[in-house]
Amino acid sequence: MGPALIGRPLDGIWHTGIVVFGKEYFFGGSGIEFCNPGGTQLGQPLQVEDLGETEINEALFQDYLRTQSQDRFRGDRYDLLRHNCNNFSHEAAQFLVGKGIPQHILDLPNEIMATPLGQMLAPMIQQMTPSGNSLPFNMGNGEGANGAVSNEAAAGGLSSLSNTQKEIQNASFPYKDFITFDQALKVDGLAKKLEEFNSNQKNEDTRLTDSELKVVLGIAKGLVRLSDENFSILTKIQKWEKSQVFPLLDILRSKCLKPSFDNSNQIKEVLNMFEKNLSSDSQVNSMLAARGISNILSNPKLQHVLTEFENLEKILCSATALFPTGHQNLEISLASLLYNVSVQQIQKPNLEASVLVASSIATEVLPSLTQDEAIYRTLLALGNITITGPAEVKELLQSMEIGNQVKEYMKKEEKIASCSKEILKMLGPASDGLDLD
Questions:
Q1: pLDDT of amino acid 336
Q2: What angle do CA 184, 329, 360 make, to 5 degrees?
Q3: Position with higher pLDDT, 345 vs 125
Q4: From the centroid of its chain, how far is CA 398?
Q5: 75 pLDDT band (50/70/90 cuts)?
Q6: Which residues are catalytic?
């Protein structure tokens, strides 16, 4: 991914640790930790740099670690991009042998964060931290041990083009049919709720008149045109309390299936309303908003409002922030939204959007899912992005070892297991990938 990130080849985003006195020490979100050499979740290092022998004995080194863990390298001060394992390795190496780790490793986070794509990937990268055991500071004594820095990284691998083409021919991917939420409006029930909520409005600015209420119900029934004046009447409901807005969202969800709107400004306002309601304040509103956006993506006359990455980014960030959720239908609706975005990317590929979808699925969505149908739809999205997205997407997923998560779904029902199998084929043979600290 180097050229896409910083305009030049990138060997790795380095995780480093100090190997001394028979243990590997490193800094992470839990503070200073240790494990057996090469024992972090990132596996064996690709490169080990011998820094020589230290004159510091183990007791003194433990004192140094104790002091550092209480101040500069406390767990709550860890910041993967600004104060990370490499800063710890550098300072520990200077303490042990009088010289630090290579400067290009220390400089790389700033180099990446100076690029737009690096800034976009920052939330995903922040989650990629190795783990070990927190230091008890009773490791015993020893002298004259060798000090070393272990640099863990690997070059991401890609299948050859011919192999990829064969996989496409043999697999069901890509899936190109949008998911739509086309349930008919229960107008009688909506009418009762609208009348009830409207009667509770204390403010004249939010209360609908009798004629306005008839306009809203006429829109719901498909009998009244969505002129700007009528659209303004309908959207007056968004000023109601959060718990009373769901009738409006359901009406708009239904209207997004057909060419119902008078102009593009209305469509943009509807999208903004949906995005605003992708919020933890109300799971029902969030569910209806996710379904409405899914319908926008499925409608060729409306989907242009989500072709700009800035708009899509807002939606994806708001949607993935809702995970985990204990609401079954919300989880499935959010997974459907991700799937429809993946179908959109087949039609109009965009590197930034594909990377954001892939990283969101890997770090925030899949680990949070509890419903089999949500897992299935999310896997479909992952497969679509993997097989049709830019090469950098596949490299990213390989580096994040997403295959380990996908393998867990091989034990699920047949459609999930089959989908998982095809994704693993697309990702290619297991490889070390690109270690992200």
A1: 96
A2: 120
A3: 345
A4: 15
A5: confident
A6: 15, 85
